[in-house]
Task: inverse folding
């Protein structure tokens, strides 16, 4: 416990758990937001006459971290802002910045993807290697990301997991977007994270498949003659009639907006959809896998 100006504050249980993430050097908007937040924290700290070392000790973290956050080099987590607000008597000013920080706490590419998904009226996704991020449980996503080499640093790993989970807010949108997922059988049989993590992931798929705006189809391994062997296909369609899509082995894997290029992706997706199991057959297939685990 820590007492400051008559207020008793709970200290973190582990000082090594630094409450923040590094800012991407090419993320200009993110840098500007985090710099503003850091400057406000420093001004509040100086206003109450507290040195950086005292502030760090009261919070239970290293002084170097305080300098990084105040200097706009580190993204503070929500709990850090809550504690700093209480400690500095900011009256909610610092805590209110959580909304701004929330928008930049994830890597820029993931933010852009989440923003597009948040605007999409329809999503088409075929995956032949891993389950789509919107279908993953948190423990499955963490286990999957841990397979990357070279090994991802722990703070970056947790940042990536948090970003992936945040994208699932798409399920809460109203009106709900139409979501179509086609999964290769092999992605369902690979026990990522071990037997129990895998089982809970399969059970989660069954839960998601019950949503009226979600269609999940399985592509059996023995159906190889389809245009999805070149890699993933994803298409996002928006209310204004525009769309964006990509495929691993087309257009250098880059996102495309041109109607002619999008037509190619939709044509391929349509063929794959027709070759896959129906949604009812796919549901039965996943239920069978659950029973086998």
Result:
């Amino acid at each position: 416990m820590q007492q400051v100006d008559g207020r008793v504050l709970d200290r973190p249980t582990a000082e090594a758990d630094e409450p923040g993430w590094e800012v991407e050097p090419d993320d200009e908007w993110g840098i500007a937001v985090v710099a503003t937040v850091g400057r406000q924290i420093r001004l509040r700290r100086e206003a109450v006459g507290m040195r950086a070392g005292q502030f760090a000790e009261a919070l239970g973290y290293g002084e170097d971290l305080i300098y990084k956050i105040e200097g706009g080099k580190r993204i503070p987590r929500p709990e850090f802002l809550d504690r700093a607000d209480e400690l500095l008597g900011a009256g909610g000013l610092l805590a209110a910045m959580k909304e701004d920080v929330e928008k930049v706490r994830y890597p820029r590419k993931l933010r852009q993807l989440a923003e597009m998904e948040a605007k999409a009226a329809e999503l088409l996704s075929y995956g032949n290697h891993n389950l789509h991020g919107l279908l993953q449980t948190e423990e499955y996503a963490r286990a999957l990301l841990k397979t990357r080499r070279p090994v991802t640093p722990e703070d970056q790993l947790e940042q990536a997991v948090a970003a992936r989970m945040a994208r699932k807010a798409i399920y809460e949108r109203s009106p709900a977007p139409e979501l179509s997922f086609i999964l290769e059988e092999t992605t369902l049989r690979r026990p990522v994270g071990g037997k129990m993590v895998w089982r809970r992931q399969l059970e989660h798929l069954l839960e998601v498949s019950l949503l009226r705006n979600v269609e999940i189809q399985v592509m059996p391994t023995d159906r190889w003659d389809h245009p999805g062997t070149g890699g993933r296909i994803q298409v996002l369609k928006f209310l204004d009639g525009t769309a964006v899509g990509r495929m691993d082995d087309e257009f250098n894997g880059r996102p495309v907006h041109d109607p002619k290029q999008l037509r190619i992706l939709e044509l391929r997706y349509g063929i794959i959809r027709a070759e896959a199991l129906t949604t009812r057959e796919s549901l039965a297939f996943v239920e069978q896998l659950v029973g086998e685990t």
